[in-house]
Design a protein that fits this description.
single chain, alpha/beta, 23 strands, FAD/NAD(P)-binding domain, 5-stranded parallel beta sheet
Length: about 450
């Protein structure tokens, strides 16, 4: 079937890239909608980033990794976590959960493992997808669900460093740093967690960043703090939400100590998500197990010089500096972001290329599993013609606008930032799905990836 001759009695052929958290949700929703779904997964099993030492080469999980969101936020609404699971899950728990989800929904029959997508490009037949060492296949829709934590950002340092450098993507255990002097660069979750872990075995650890993010505890009054996050917060001005969080943790006596960490640059819940402090990180901060310094200015042999004029000698530098949003198998104009900006209609459909969608390209704090399941349901409705799209100009207008609360929180990261308030975003998707529940099908062209030219924007 092609975009040019799609008939109403035919279903689109859909290619899903990736069989992790986002890819599995996409495969399930699209297969339930009756589409012909083929999923390509570079690794030998499901799980994506939660598959430790994944042979896809795309997992950044380290041996001790635990979730920083409690289990209620680490589950698909349709498939709850086991009651016996701990509040904060080890990566092995997450892998087992995703494998159980795939088995319960018989998803492996749609997945081809050990299949690496080398290139995907649009043509007159839809999308031509080429695997490494194979001829191209053709699909009406391409759904990229392979995650955006695989292309590490490694800042260039002025000067020459004589020791070893690595990005946290390649960090697994602290053993290699035993007795060494280590500088960890970064001020977000992974930087603090890795600095705390390395400090148990290293001779000296320095965390280098101008500003470390806000710290929040895992628990308040005996419950995971993130369980108190609800859509009701959308009715409260953002400054009052911030105040409520501070008061709650203070009354609970669980406000984390900052120790040597440098102060945050912006208010809580503004621009970036806070760090959730693990027991290991809390102990390291309390014990002053590592030092802090501003950003690295330059290096000279084994000397690391900081912006304030200070310096340390180091054997290793670990970059916890995030990831580029990059999909090298796609054309550059649709597969690479500008910093944290990646414009998508409803954070799903590309306004650049017909028949191209993404699942899971969001930074929404707790609750990402709910988001990707809802995104997948929305996309099934969109491809099936039940959800109406605006014309391309109106699509860009809607993409520029974003959700009101998300703009209030994250405008500083860009107009098309991947950061969002999950409640505001889920409300938008829920509204579209409610409207779709009473609608009929659209044209075959919409189902095959062509957007209608003049339909009112939702």
């Amino acid at each position: 079937m092609t975009s040019a001759n799609a008939r109403l009695d035919e279903q689109p052929r859909v290619c899903v890239v990736g069989a992790g958290m986002s890819g599995l949700a996409a495969v399930d929703a699209l297969a339930r909608a009756g589409f012909a779904v083929t999923c390509y997964e570079a690794g030998s099993g499901v799980g994506g980033r939660w598959r430790y030492e994944n042979d896809s080469g795309r997992s950044a999980a380290y041996a001790s990794l635990q979730t920083n969101t409690s289990k209620r936020g680490m589950q698909y609404p349709s498939f709850p976590q086991p009651d016996a699971a701990p509040d904060f899950l080890h990566h092995s728990d997450m892998r087992a959960y995703l494998e159980s989800y795939a088995a319960a929904n018989a998803l492996a029959r749609h997945v081809r493992f050990g299949a690496t997508v080398a290139r995907a490009e649009p043509d007159e037949r839809g999308w031509k997808v080429t695997l490494e060492g194979e001829r191209a296949g053709h699909f009406d829709w391409l759904v990229v669900a392979s995650g955006h934590y695989s292309d590490p950002i490694v800042p260039e340092l002025r000067g020459e460093f004589s020791g070893e450098t690595l990005h946290v993507r390649d960090y697994r255990t602290p053993d290699r740093f035993a007795g060494k002097r280590v500088v960890v660069v970064g001020g977000a979750q992974s930087a603090l967690d890795v600095a705390a872990e390395i400090s148990r075995v290293a001779a000296k650890v320095t965390l280098a960043c101008d500003h470390a993010r806000h710290l929040l505890p895992r628990y308040a009054f005996g419950r995971p703090l993130d369980e108190r996050d609800s859509a009701a917060a959308l009715l409260i001005p953002l400054p009052l939400v911030r105040l409520a969080v501070h008061v709650l943790t203070r009354l609970a006596g669980t406000t984390p100590e900052r120790g040597p960490l440098r102060p945050p640059a912006r208010p809580l819940l503004d621009t970036h998500w806070p760090i959730i402090v693990s027991p290991a990180a809390e102990a390291a901060i309390t014990q002053r197990a590592f030092g802090c310094a501003p950003r690295v200015a330059n290096v000279d042999g084994d000397r690391v010089n900081f912006a304030d004029g200070g310096e340390v000698r180091a054997d290793s530098i670990v970059f916890a500096t995030g990831y580029e949003i990059s999909f090298p198998f796609l054309p550059a104009d649709v597969g690479r972001a500008k910093a944290r900006e990646f414009p998508l209609y409803r954070r799903i459909v590309s306004p650049h290329a017909p028949g191209l969608a993404f699942i899971g390209i969001v930074e929404a704090g707790p609750g990402t599993f709910e988001i990707v399941e809802r995104q997948a349901q929305w996309l099934a409705g969109f491809i099936g013609g039940r959800i109406r799209a605006p014309d391309r100009e109106a699509m860009w207008t809607a993409t520029d606008a974003g959700e009101r609360r998300s703009r209030a929180q994250f405008a500083a990261t860009g107009r098309h930032t991947i950061f969002c308030n999950r409640h505001a975003y889920l409300r938008v998707l829920a509204r579209d799905l409610r409207l779709a529940s009473g609608s009929g099908r659209l044209s075959a062209g919409a189902r095959a990836g062509r957007l209608p030219a003049a339909v009112a924007a939702p």
